[in-house]
Specification:
The chain contains four helices and no strands. By secondary structure, it is mainly α. It is elongated.
Length: about 170
């Protein structure tokens, strides 16, 4: 019989699990920043490409058209990793994780195969990253409230002990 190492847990989450979830949150933050960069690139290069002097500039048109797609496509592996962590540690309902990843994948693949476009599928991946951002925030808010309640209980126990020991 092997003895498992004695690890303190927070609501059933080992320190290793919390570390993995924090890592996934950092990966999700990078994905969100890439999405913001894609939106910014779309607005800036689209505005510049719409100026009459730059109408025939192919580089600006390619930056306007393809750079946001590439930036959002880079977030897909990150989002899949986040989905695995969220699903593995049950930070969100399993059906919700499966549905968001499934619908986004179907829309992206269907758009590429049948409509020869990727914009709707990639737009659905935007929502997935922000959904996972909220899931991570809720989880760490939950752990923080737990830490605060434990601190409050310890403080109230200390105060009660101090009151019991003082003479009247």
């Amino acid at each position: 019989m092997t003895n498992a190492p004695n690890q303190s847990t927070q609501y059933g989450f080992t320190p290793l699990a919390v570390t993995r979830i924090k890592g996934a949150q950092r990966v999700n933050k990078i994905a969100v920043y890439l999405i913001y960069a894609a939106i910014f690139a779309f607005m800036v290069f689209g505005t510049i490409a719409s100026i009459k002097m730059f109408h025939d500039n192919q580089l600006l048109y390619r930056l306007f058209f393809n750079l946001p797609y590439v930036l959002i496509a880079l977030t897909i592996p990150m989002t899949l990793y986040d989905a695995f962590i969220i699903y593995r540690y049950r930070l969100n309902q399993a059906s919700m994780v499966i549905m968001t990843i499934g619908v986004s994948s179907i829309i992206l693949i269907g758009g590429l195969l049948f409509a020869d476009t990727a914009w709707l599928g990639l737009a659905s991946w935007l929502g997935v990253a922000f959904l996972f951002k909220v899931s991570f925030k809720r989880f760490f808010d939950f752990l923080e409230v737990d830490d605060l309640s434990e601190t409050t209980e310890e403080t109230s126990m200390d105060i009660a002990t101090d009151l019991d020991n003082k003479p009247l």
